[in-house]
């Protein structure tokens, strides 16, 4: 998730979401539910009758008070049940006043505003994809990640030979919370990190994958829970490897933005498994469920202009951005996080 201290002037809007009959979910899981244009109020009949029009007035009042107190610059609230949406309420605008990075204005929130899913990507994309592969018999939770069918013996460097898929999913693989130096740090050496306004490109894919293979551990696998992006970055490559090797994704399915920087357009390079991961999630999760606006790499036009900023980055990108994590910006450009 994005550090709160970065939610300063020009910072993110957010979604408030309640799903009746299920657990309350935080921010952006809503998206798939009010995908499409012109989502409208939908009345809801229950055993006690139809809810009156003022049912959600208190909810709206709480949100309006939060906006007034600058808790957030804007939001889209949604409440739904198994029949669909029963309440939607956009409030406020994209930022606290700073221009957004696309329109250079401060657009109002609408039901069609898209949001960065941030670390919910781990649940909605990576975990879901892993479950599909597990269900189909391609993934054993106790397989070692260094198994030739997964990332192979190169992953076993620096004490990682015992790490299993289960360790990655439980965040007890032994990884530190973040790599040091971070992939976006000038000291790491990605070409774009030396630029004050780094470009969004895939020029550092090979370097970051090599660093992942060489990553050392902070603890022995299975001994301590540490929430680490490195676990899910690794799992992304596991999913992509299996999707490629079992024919769920063909080279023709790959997003051209993900592969067009690569030499000779080779689709067999090991670090390009991230591109197979994106295609697997797109085709086998989002498209299968009809969630057209749950996606990586949203098209710059018109979708990018509809996407609320999430971070006022004063350290690396030096501008208001729609993606909060520099990993997302570097590893997969706009792929590491999903949008809705």
Automatic annotation (TrEMBL):
The keyword Cytoplasm does not apply. GO terms for molecular function: carboxypeptidase activity. The keyword Repressor does not apply. Pfam families: Beta-lactamase. InterPro entries: Beta-lactam-related, Beta-lactam/transpept-like, Diverse_Enzym_Activities. Keywords: Carboxypeptidase, Hydrolase, Protease. Gene3D superfamilies: DD-peptidase/beta-lactamase superfamily (3.40.710.10). It comes from the Eukaryota. Residues 62-242 form the Beta-lactamase-related domain. This is D-alanyl-D-alanine carboxypeptidase. It comes from Geodia barretti (Barrett's horny sponge).
């Amino acid at each position: 998730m994005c550090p709160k201290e970065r939610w300063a002037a020009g910072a993110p809007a957010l979604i408030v979401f309640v799903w009746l009959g299920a657990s309350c979910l935080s921010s952006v899981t809503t998206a798939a539910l009010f995908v499409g244009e012109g989502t409208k109020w939908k009345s809801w009949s229950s055993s006690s009758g139809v809810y009156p029009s003022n049912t959600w007035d208190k909810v709206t009042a709480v949100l309006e008070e939060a906006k007034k107190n600058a808790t957030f610059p804007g939001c889209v609230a949604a409440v739904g049940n198994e029949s669909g949406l029963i309440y939607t309420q956009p409030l406020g605008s994209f930022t606290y006043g700073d221009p957004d990075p696309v329109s250079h204005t401060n657009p109002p929130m609408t039901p069609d505003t898209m949001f960065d899913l941030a670390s919910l990507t781990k649940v909605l994309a990576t975990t879901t994809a892993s479950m599909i592969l597990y269900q189909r018999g391609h993934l054993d939770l106790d397989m070692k990640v260094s198994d030739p069918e997964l990332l192979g013996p190169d992953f076993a460097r620096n004490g990682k030979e015992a790490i299993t898929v289960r360790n990655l999913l439980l965040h007890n693989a032994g990884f530190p919370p973040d790599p040091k130096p971070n992939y976006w740090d000038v000291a790491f050496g990605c070409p774009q990190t030396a630029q004050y306004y780094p470009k969004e490109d895939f020029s550092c894919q090979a370097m970051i994958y090599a660093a992942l293979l060489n990553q050392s551990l902070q603890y022995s696998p299975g001994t301590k829970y540490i929430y680490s992006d490195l676990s899910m970055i690794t799992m992304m490559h596991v999913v992509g490897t299996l999707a490629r090797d079992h024919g769920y994704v063909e080279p023709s399915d790959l997003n051209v933005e993900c592969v067009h920087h690569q030499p000779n357009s080779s689709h067999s390079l090991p670090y390009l498994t991230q591109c197979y991961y994106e295609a697997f999630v797109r085709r086998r999760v989002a498209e299968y469920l009809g969630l057209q606006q749950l996606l990586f790499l949203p098209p710059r036009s018109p979708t990018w202009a509809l996407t609320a900023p999430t971070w006022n980055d004063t350290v690396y990108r030096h501008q208001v951005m729609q993606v909060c994590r520099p990993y997302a910006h570097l590893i997969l450009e706009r792929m590491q996080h999903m949008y809705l």
